[in-house]
Amino acid sequence: MKPLASIFLCAAVAASSPAAAQAFKPGRPIELVVHTGPGGGNDVLARAIAAMVEKEKLLPVRMQVVNKTGGGGLTAMAYLVEKKGETHTIALFANTWFTVPAMRAEAKFTMNDLTPIVGLVVEPAMVAVKNDAPYRSLREFIDAAKQKPGELKQSGGSIGSRDWVMRQLLMKHTGASWAFISFPAGGERIAALLGGHVNMMIIEPQEAGEHIRSGNMRVLAQVSDKRLPPFPDIPTVKEAGFAVPAYAVVRGVVGPPEMPADAFAYWEGFFEKFTQTASWKKHLEDNLFEDGFQKGSELARFMQQFPEQIRGILQDAGVKVVR
Q1: What are the extents of the domains in the chain?
Q2: Could you read off the pLDDT of 215-260 as tens digits, one per residue?
Q3: How many Cβ atoms from other residues are within 10 Å of residue 42's Cβ?
Q4: Backbone region of residue 184 per phi and psi (left: phi > 0; alpha: psi in -120 to 50; beta: other values)
Q5: Which terminus of the chain has a lower count of CB atoms within 10 Å, N or C?
Q6: Beta strands 89-93 and 249-255, pairing class
């Protein structure tokens, strides 16, 4: 198996020829693979991308979202690896594609097996409770969890997801303990909170948007390095008194192993053009995303460096790391 950097370098050199760069053009529907179920962060973003691409008429074919759930990204990664050399299948990755292989020895693939295309966004998050919850601050929730070890519940995604990692960090830092209830779809996680079946969740702005605006959810703290403009009075986790990393979610696009150079060049250029559209810029603003666009070469370097940061955060949270 060739190292990612070598594969990327070969692709970049081959794509330098104008003829090679223009050789590929989509001729059938595009699969945009995500690892979450309906309503999950990657699913919501992928469907928004597909809708914007159609609105802007950027593709000659349809882009369809394909949900490959399970294993916190491992199922989606395996599906992508099976598509080795494919030109019409791409995927939207998130942090779990790094964290889960780091925690599971049985993981057959890592991000190093895939073709880096572009980085897209960096996402903050919020610690949210139901609007009628007794907790007015993150400190109050933590204190309640200390008084009732293991009784309070947090709805979340898969093991290794940002909400799970933040829980681990907060519990280790404070000595508090609460349960983590995993749901495959974002809609189920939200329904569990709003239905009173769990007490708290750590949620991305794009998932929570309408519920926060309508007042169904109360934000206790922000998982970000600085306060977001719509929530000037809500402290960050660190401002709330908890010295843990503001663990951001990074999302971007990867392709199958050994994607042909002309297809790589097409998709890199396609997403660079896409991120310049008014629709995408409005989406970033509406969802409080940071512009995280990176071309393939930058993303390849990030994919080599980020796992070391992931290992440090996981180890700080008391998680055993296997690679």
Answers
A1: 4-123+248-316, 125-223
A2: 889 999 999 888 888 888 999 999 999 998 888 889 999 999 999 9
A3: 28
A4: alpha
A5: N
A6: antiparallel
Residue 3 has pLDDT above 60, yes or no: no
CA end-to-end distance (rounded Å), the chain? 17
Q: Which residues contact 213 (CB under 8 A, 6 or more apart)?
A: none
55-60, long-range: CB < 8 A, 24+ apart: 55/279, 56/274, 56/277, 56/279, 58/270, 58/273, 58/274, 58/277, 59/26, 59/30, 59/270, 60/25, 60/26, 60/27
Structure token digits, residue 153: 């519940």
Q: What CATH number should be reported for the domain whose range is 4-123+248-316?
A: 3.40.190.150
Give the pTM: 0.78
User: Which class is 125-223 in CATH?
Assistant: alpha beta
Tokens 């159609």 sit at which residue? Answer: 54
Q: Where are any strands of DSSP class E within 139-256? A: 153-156, 179-182, 200-203, 217-223, 249-255
Helix (H, G, I), strand (E, B) or coil at 66: strand
CA angle 40, 276, 60 (to 5 degrees): 75
Q: How distant, in Å, are the alpha carbons of 141, 236, 239 from that of 137?
A: 7, 11, 11
Cα distance between residue 142 and residue 138, in whole Å: 6
**Is residue 198 within 8 Å of residue 153, measured between CB atoms?**
yes
